[in-house]
Amino acid sequence: MSLDLEQIRRIARLARIAVSDAEAADTAASLSGVLGLIGEMQAVDTTGIEPMAHALDAQVSSAQRLREDKAVEPDRRTAYQASAPAVQDGLYLVPRVVE
Amino acid sequence: MDWEIVVGLETHTQLLTESKIFSGASTAFGAEPNTQASAVDLALPGVLPVLNAKAVEFAVRLGLAIGATISPRSVFARKNYFYPDLPKGYQISQYELPVVQHGTLKIAVEGGEKTVRILRAHLEEDAGKSLHEDFKGLSGIDLNRAGTPLLEIVTEPDLRGAKEAVAYAKALHSLVRWIGICDGNMQEGSFRCDANVSVRRPGAPLGTRCEIKNLNSFRFMEQAIEYEARRQVELIEDGGTVVQETRLYDPDRNETRSMRSKEDAQDYRYFPDPDLLPLVINEAEIERIRALLPELPQAKRERFARDYGLAAYDAAQLTASRESADFFEDLVRASRAEPKTCANWQTGEFAAALNRDGLEVGHSPVGAEALGALLRRIADGTISGKIAKEVFEAMWRREAEGPGAADAIIEARGLEQISDTGAIEKMVDEVLAANARQVEDYRAGKEKAFNSLVGQVMKAAKGKANPGQVNAILKKKLGG
Lengths: 99, 480
Fold this sequence. Notes:
The complex is a heterodimer.
Chain A: H1 5-14, H2 21-42, E1 66-67, H3 77-81, E2 87-88, E3 91-95
Antiparallel strand pairs in A: 2-3
Chain B: E1 4-14, H1 39-42, E2 51-52, H2 53-65, E3 69-70, E4 73-74, E5 76-80, E6 90-94, E7 100-109, E8 112-125, E9 129-131, E10 138-142, E11 149-155, E12 159-160, H3 162-178, E13 191-200, E14 210-215, H4 218-237, E15 246-250, E16 255-260, E17 271-272, E18 279-280, H5 283-292, H6 297-307, H7 312-318, H8 322-335, H9 339-357, H10 368-379, H11 385-396, H12 405-412, H13 421-434, H14 436-443, H15 447-460, H16 467-479
Parallel strand pairs in B: 14-15
Antiparallel strand pairs in B: 1-11, 1-12, 1-13, 3-7, 4-18, 5-6, 5-17, 7-8, 8-11, 9-10, 13-14, 15-16
Helix pairs in contact in B: 3-4, 6-7, 7-9, 8-9, 8-10, 10-11, 11-12, 13-15, 13-16, 14-15, 15-16
């Protein structure tokens, strides 16, 4: 299976990655290569095998560990905001977003 | 020909946990911006999510309350999209294997009951908040809400019209509070609905639907669905077709408008989150949680109707909330009165007073013990039902408090009913002497004159004479 340039542009837009027209052909080729690998895996007969949701699913004891419901995190806003590009009144400032 | 309005609802209920779903940050409402946003909530490099046991328990509680299947194994997935209030670039949610599947909720509809199928309920995290004003052309981001646990509850397209949708939303709202998993505060966003609306000719296949986002009041939900259905019908009748899209309801203009065009249709590229193992819930855990569930609204409603001999309507009113139902049972116990009398008082005077002051049952100035003591004074003839209303108003104004309030007010105001036959006879004699014309009218066959005479006696007694005795004595004297 191979991807066409239109699909590449759509994936790039969804991932918010700028892919120039010059790069698009190369990207299409390498992503198509990945799909080829997936194609090989999908060709394997997995009839009767339960799909896994996680690599550790193969282990019998694998289950999500749970945390007790306790608010234990201290307020570290000052430290976290020290590395933010812009803050005001405790808020992180980002380029304006409006739906 | 008629159109049928088809609605499915997705409800985001914020779970009443102390900490977030994947971090130990507090979920308390109203804190200073970003003071409850931990490294996990901010998606700093290297952090890993750890699931909150309480959030899982609450999801199971809901599942049991709607008679659903609790998935023995469910999976967390990443829902990928970009927005500044979602620092990871994905929301952790559940996709193919949600924790709760296939439940039902019964709702009251015109002419009876209806069973609404609930397709699924899944755990997920909330996003932060974006503020768009006052930042010199920039947006401000508060991540306190990021990571707050949500249970998204999704119905099948079983609802017909805005009224049914609202009836379902109200029933669910009542249920999540009843089982203690959500505070139901719609202003603070703890209970938000999205409505999928389509129209069709009865019997035809489902039409194309539009999703109306973030309906945070029952009134807006009803208006939004009605507007949207009308819009779709007009569009189709004018020869157009409905385009599947997300729309936003504007309550100020009472209309919905397109939020995202088709070109930008979302593709969330869900995949299992490698940071989280499958969630395994075993039978013993489910039974432990089941044992902790309170009697559910449906069961309580049926029991009230059966054991207390109440009409279905009264039983439904009284079980609208757990607090209300508990109040009723306490009232029956305290008053030792007929359940029907208790129901009349609770849904009458008491509900009206709560409504007038905008109070919930739990914050009433008159408790079940105190109201019960008042009803006992009606039953034992100390006061009439009419005087009891006056005493109740005084209790409501806290003229006296506690279980002895009614007696204190009756005594302080001298409201005790006159049941002394001699005293009543004396008053009746005086009234008969002073109202010779009415007496003649009555004897001439005018029934109305009798009521007027009763009124005169009650007036002379300042409303305190035992009405039954007044009637009996008057009849005797007039007949003689």
